[in-house]
Amino acid sequence: MATIIRFLGRISPVLALLAVWEAVALAGLVKPFLLPALHVVAGKVWGDIASGQFALNASLTLYRALVGFALACVIGVPVGILIASDRVARWIAEPLISVGFPMPKIAFLPVFMLWFGVYDASKIIMVCFAAIFAVIAAAEAGTRGVDKFMLWSARALGAGKREVFREVILPAAMPQCLTGMQIALPVSLITAVAAEMLMGGAGLGGAMLAAGNYADSPGVFAGIIETSAVGLVAVYGMSALRQRLLRWHPEFNAR
Fold first, then answer.
1. Which sign, positive or negative, has the C-alpha torsion 69, 189, 126, 138?
2. Is the dihedral of CA 202, 203, 209, 210 positive or negative?
């Protein structure tokens, strides 16, 4: 019972926002086309779930987002560690990271469409490109933040480069790397949906684009809710994974 009360307390702002939404719509303060009533949108969401359309669109969007996110992690973590460990790599890569991080990545979608076609490959590469900068920056910061005394102590005890990396650098940098991944995951989902909205086709973003083209206002709002639900599950899943991988870390042991 206490768990349920805590959960309701945490989501109370969301429930209040939904209640205001329904009240404003029912009072007729806004035209239904601009703001359909919550129960109408909920009916549309339920229809998408019952028909299997939500499962299809969500699975396609998650596939593109998670594959691109995985590529960003597989490439970004080693690159970030290399930049922090090697002066030449840092000299080459740091200007590129500084320029690329604040850049609007979605602007490259037409380029990727020309290079890789209009199917999943261009969307996945777009997601990877959008997410990789946060992963690289976090991995670099985590590696550079490793306690020098830990490194000196390990080397003094006879540890080789591989042992130092495996036993000291990687565990010490892991919390920062996971933080970068937690930032990159929502970016991946946002980019996947944005790419689908621009390119069309199946997926949560494509469904919202189709609804907008047919002036289906409840469909657009249903797509927003469905995308938010998928993003919430993904973010909580990443948070649970972080807690599992860092069970040994003080940030969880101190709780």
1. negative
2. positive
As given in the structure block, the two tokens for residue 87 are: 């002066």
| Region 101-120 average pLDDT | 83
- Rounded distance, CA 221 to CA 225, Å? 6
**Helix or strand (DSSP H, E) at 160:** none
Evaluated on CA atoms 64, 70, 74, 79, the torsion sign reads positive
Q: How far apart are CA 177 and CA 159, in angstroms?
A: 23
- Residues 60-82 have pLDDT tens digits of 999 999 999 999 999 998 888 88
Residues whose CB falls within 8 Å of the CB of residue 199, separated by 6 or more in sequence, listed in order: 109, 113, 118, 122, 123, 206
CA distance 244 to 226: 27
How is residue 76 annotated by DSSP?
A: H
pTM above 0.90, yes or no: no
Q: Considering only CA atoms, which of 220, 208, 191 is closest in space to residue 66?
A: 191
Element (H, E) at 120: helix 120-144
Q: What is the mean pLDDT of residues 131-137?
A: 90
Which domains, ranges and CATH numbers included, belong to the chain?
54-246 (1.10.3720.10)
Collect all residues with Cβ–Cβ distance below 8 Å to 227 and sequence separation of at least 6.
Answer: 61, 189, 193, 204, 205, 208
Tokens of 53: 């359309």
- 102 neighbors 96 (Cβ within 8 angstroms): no
